Amino acid sequence: MHKSGWISIVGSPNVGKSTLVNALMGEKLSIVTNKPQTTRHRITAIANGEDYQMVFSDTPGVLKPHYKMQEAMMKKVGEALDDADVILAVTDVEEKYFERELFEKLKRTKLPVVAVLNKLDLGEQEETGRKLELLKEQLNPTAIIAVSALHNFNIKELKNLLIGLLPEGEPFYPKDQISDLPEKFFVSEILREKILMYYQQEIPYSVEVVTVEFLETEKLTRIRCEIFVNRHTQKAIIIGNKGEALKRTATAARKDLEKWLNAKVFLEVQVKVKKGLERQ
Ligand SMILES: Nc1nc2c(ncn2[C@@H]2O[C@H](COP(=O)(O)OP(=O)(O)OP(=O)(O)O)[C@@H](O)[C@H]2O)c(=O)[nH]1
Ligand SMILES: [Mg+2]
C-alpha cells in the first residue's frame, strides 16, 4: 500500500513553519530567520519514503495584508488551504492564539487538521499543557502534537501521524525529487536569507533577488544574482563602504551554496535599482 498527498503548513509569522518543514524533510529547503515574514512564496518540499510521498507546502505567515506584496502572500496561503489533503496548523508556545481569520477557516474546513504546538523547548510544562488543552477544546483538530522543530523533538512522531492521514495513491513526483521549484529559485532564496540576516530596518523587506545565471561546469558552478531595490540610497546601503557589506553577504551566501550544491561556487552579485524608479 502506497500513500501520497499534499500537506499545507499554515500559521502566523515566525512560529517556525519553515524550520518544521526542514526538520520533516531532514534537509534545509526553506529559508529561516528570526524575522517575521521570511517566507514570501509557497515552497514545495517533497519527502519520500518507500511507501509514502508527502508534498509539503510551506507558506508565508498569515497576517492582515497592509500592502500589495502581503496581499499576494495571503493569496498563496489561501490556495495552499484549498488544495491540500491535510492541513498542518502551526502555533508556538509564545503565540496567544491563531490569527482570527485563519482560525475560522481551520474550524470550517472538512480536511483533517493537525495542530502543532512548536518551540516546546521554550515553554514551561504546565503552561504548555494548558495551551494544548485549549487548542483541543477550541479548534477540535484531528490530531494535536507538541514539538520542537529546532531540536528535532517529536518530529518522527509527527511524520508518522501525517503518513497515517494521507490518502492511498501513487506518488505524484519521481521518488528522487525533493521540490518542484527550479534550482535558481533556491539560489535566490539563499541570498535573500543572508540579506535578511545582515541588514536592518526596511532593507530586508525592500529587496527582490533574481538568479540570472546558473551554470554547472566540471570545476565549479557559476552563479550570477541580481538584487533589486527601490532606491539609490538602498543600493548604497546594500553595497556598503568599499563594498564590504555586500562582500560579507555574498560570501555567506556562497558558503551555503557550496554546501547545498556540494560543489565549488563562483558567485557574482549585482545590485540594481528597479527600472522606472530610478529618479525617485
Ligand atoms: N527555540 C526554538 N526556536 C525555533 C523553533 N522552531 C523555529 N524556531 C526559530 O523561530 C524563528 C522563526 O522560524 P521560521 O521557521 O523562519 O518561522 P516561519 O513560521 O517560517 O516564519 P515566516 O516565514 O516569517 O512566516 C527562527 O529564529 C527559528 O530558529 C523551536 O522549535 N524552538
Ligand atoms: Mg517561513
Helix content: 25-40%
Q: Give me the number of helical elements.
A: 9
**Order of strands across the biggest sheet?**
2-3-1-4-5-6
CATH architecture of the largest domain: 3-Layer(aba) Sandwich
The secondary structure category is alpha/beta
CATH uppermost class of the largest domain: Alpha Beta
Average pLDDT over all residues: 91
And the CATH topology of the largest domain?
Rossmann fold
CATH superfamily of the largest domain: P-loop containing nucleotide triphosphate hydrolases
Description:
This protein is an alpha/beta fold. The chain has nine helices and nine strands. The protein has helices spanning 17-25, 68-82, 100-108, 125-139, 155-165, 183-198, 203-206, 232-239, 244-261, and strands spanning 3-11, 43-49, 52-58, 86-92, 113-118, 143-146, 208-216, 221-229, 265-273. The strands form two sheets. It has a six-stranded mixed β-sheet, sandwiched between helices. Helix 4 (125-139) links the parallel strand 5 (113-118) and strand 6. Helix 6 crosses helix 9. The longest helix is centred in the C-terminal third of the chain and has 18 residues, at 244-261. The model has no long low-confidence stretch (mean pLDDT 91).
Structural features:
binds guanosine-5'-triphosphate; 6-stranded mixed beta sheet; globular; binds magnesium ion; Rossmann fold; alpha/beta; 2 domains; 3-stranded mixed beta sheet; 280 residues; GMP Synthetase, Chain A, domain 3
